[in-house]
Design a protein that fits this description.
The chain has two domains: about 130 residues, Glycogen Phosphorylase B (Rossmann fold, 3-Layer(aba) Sandwich), CATH 3.40.50.2000; about 160 residues, Rossmann fold (3-Layer(aba) Sandwich), CATH 3.40.50. The strands form two sheets. It has a six-stranded parallel β-sheet, sandwiched between helices. Helix 2 runs parallel beside helix 5, helix 6 crosses helix 9 and helix 7 crosses helix 12. About 30% of the residues lie in helices and about 15% in strands. The chain is α/β, with parallel strands linked by helices.
């Protein structure tokens, strides 16, 4: 019988996606993985094939483990697993003591390396798994899959705009912090659009100012804006895109994890720690004597290099007879 491992990650989209190599390694160690994440991420990972099961982190009520004495029944939600990996609560002695009462092989560690350690987050997370078995020297490969329903929905949306699968360049101008938003998206969109490329853009609930500036520039039309889509639907769109350009943000990590050729533009954050993980990622910029953004010519050159490499082999053409 396959051993079951509960994996707890409290982070946002990009943080959890950087755990992909660690999740892949747990499978090589023989575990069936149940991933506990925030409710917003549950539908995405439920259909991702990265894990065997997903739970809403809140249902575990782990906040009860941060106090002494231990509340009766507080360990019930985490019992029944053969091992636990918890990237939460490593700095709290009461939490560590209480969770250890489960009496199973266990990892309780930080979800990211210590500041100044210089380690990439994915490498750090893989290394935390050493108590469960030998860790690999390289990062295990991992891939997030979009659901068939999401791919079909995205294909229909693209077809309604006269765009074939595998043609569009998707821009992701938003970021969790305005300081992480590259200022060159409007210029890049105009240059790529003038070259005849179909340009789309993503817009999340917090991306209003940068997206409105992009629309105001005329570089992207309103009907080519995927506004406030669920993550599952965004994954479907990115699975059919030719390339994507984004900031250090969750959707950029999603594009990389799903296998879309990705240009990740960094400013104040360090790509040596936070660069997206995927088979076709090119990272530009990062802090050198302060914030240094790449210029639009450099970013455009990387996009054109992706296009010159030929079509994505993992994007099937539109079936015959489908309009």
């Amino acid at each position: 019988m396959t051993a079951r491992c509960l994996v707890v990650h409290p982070g946002s989209l990009g943080d959890v996606l950087l755990a992909g190599p660690a999740l892949a390694h747990l499978r090589t160690l023989g575990f069936r993985t149940t991933l506990a994440v925030t409710s917003r991420l549950v539908p995405l990972f439920a259909g991702s094939r990265m894990v065997d099961d997903v739970r809403d982190l809140e249902t575990l009520a782990l906040h009860r483990l941060f106090v002494e004495p231990l509340v009766p029944g507080a360990l019930a939600p985490v019992q029944g697993f053969d091992a636990i990996v918890c990237w939460l609560g490593a700095g709290d002695a009461a939490f560590r003591t209480n969770l250890a009462r489960v009496g199973r092989p266990m990892v309780i560690a930080r979800a990211q390396p210590l500041p100044g350690a210089g380690a990439h987050v994915s490498r750090h997370l893989v290394d935390t798994l050493e108590p469960l078995g030998p860790v690999p020297s390289g990062l295990p490969s991992t891939r997030l899959h979009a659901t068939q329903a999401a791919r079909a929905s995205a294909a229909a949306w693209l077809a309604g705009r006269g765009i074939e699968r595998g043609e569009a360049v998707v821009l992701q101008p938003g970021a969790g912090s305005p300081a992480k938003a590259w200022p060159g998206f409007a210029s890049l969109a105009r240059r790529l659009g003038d070259a005849g490329l179909p340009i789309l853009a993503l817009a999340g609930p917090a991306d209003g100012p940068v997206v409105e500036a992009l629309l105001a520039s005329g570089a992207v039309a309103e009907d080519r804006l995927a506004r406030d889509w669920p993550l599952v639907e965004i994954a479907g769109l990115l699975s059919l895109a030719r390339a994507t350009v984004g900031n250090d943000s969750g959707p950029t990590h999603l594009a990389a994890a799903i296998g879309c050729p990705t240009v990740a533009v960094f400013g104040p954050t360090d790509p040596l720690v936070w660069s997206p993980v995927g088979p076709g990622v090119k990272t530009l910029g990062g802090p050198v004597d302060g914030t240094r953004w790449p210029d639009v010519h450099r970013v455009e050159s990387e996009v054109r290099a992706i296009l010159a490499a030929g079509p994505r082999v993992d994007v099937p053409p539109r079936p015959a007879g489908v309009r």
